[in-house]
Specification:
The chain is α+β, with helices and mostly antiparallel strands. Helix content is 18%, strand content 49%. The protein folds into two domains: 30 residues; 113 residues, Jelly Rolls, CATH 2.60.120. The longest helix has 26 residues. The radius of gyration is 21 Å and the shape is elongated.
C-alpha cells in the first residue's frame, strides 16, 4: 500500500526535477540572443530622426561578441556594422538599440546593455543608405 507521505515525496521530487530542467534550459538559451526590428528608412534622413527597439533579457556570465548592423532585405547592403567583445556578469539586462540620424543624410546605430550599474555600449560609424526602403536593424549577443 502506498502512503500519502510517499506520494507527497514523489510529487515534490517531480516538481523539483522539472524546475531544475526549466532553469537549465533557460540558462542555456540565454547563452546568445538577438534583438531585431524591420523598418522603412529613407536615404535622406533629417538630423535628429530615430527609431528604437528594446527588451529585457537574462544572460549567463561570460564573454560575449556583441554586434549591431542595419541591412536591406537581401543582406546585400551592410555598411553599418559595429562590434565589440565584452564580459557580462550573470543577470537581467535592459537591452536597447537605436538607429538615429546624427546629421542630415546619415545614420548611426547604437546599442546599450544595462543591469543597473551603468550601461555598456556598442555603436557603428556614420553611414548612408543607397536607397529608401525596408531594412532590418539587428543586434546579436553570442557567448564566446
Amino acid at each position: 500500500m502506498t502512503s500519502r507521505r510517499s506520494i507527497g515525496r514523489f510529487a515534490t521530487a517531480v516538481v523539483a526535477a522539472t524546475a531544475a530542467l526549466l532553469l537549465a534550459a533557460t540558462q542555456a538559451f540565454a547563452l546568445g540572443a538577438t534583438l531585431q526590428r524591420s523598418l522603412y528608412l529613407t536615404n535622406t534622413p533629417t538630423a535628429g530622426a530615430s527609431a528604437s527597439m528594446s527588451r529585457t533579457i537574462y544572460l549567463a556570465a561570460g564573454n560575449y561578441g556583441w554586434d549591431i548592423s542595419t541591412s536591406d532585405a537581401g543582406n546585400s547592403y551592410i555598411d553599418s556594422h559595429g562590434t565589440r567583445e565584452i564580459y557580462l556578469a550573470a543577470g537581467t539586462y535592459d537591452w536597447t538599440c537605436t538607429i538615429s540620424s546624427p546629421a542630415n543624410g546619415y545614420y548611426k546605430n547604437t546599442c546599450s546593455l544595462n543591469m543597473g550599474a551603468g550601461p555598456a555600449y556598442v555603436q557603428s560609424g556614420w553611414f548612408k543608405l543607397p536607397r529608401s526602403g525596408w531594412y532590418s536593424m539587428d543586434s546579436y549577443l553570442t557567448q564566446i
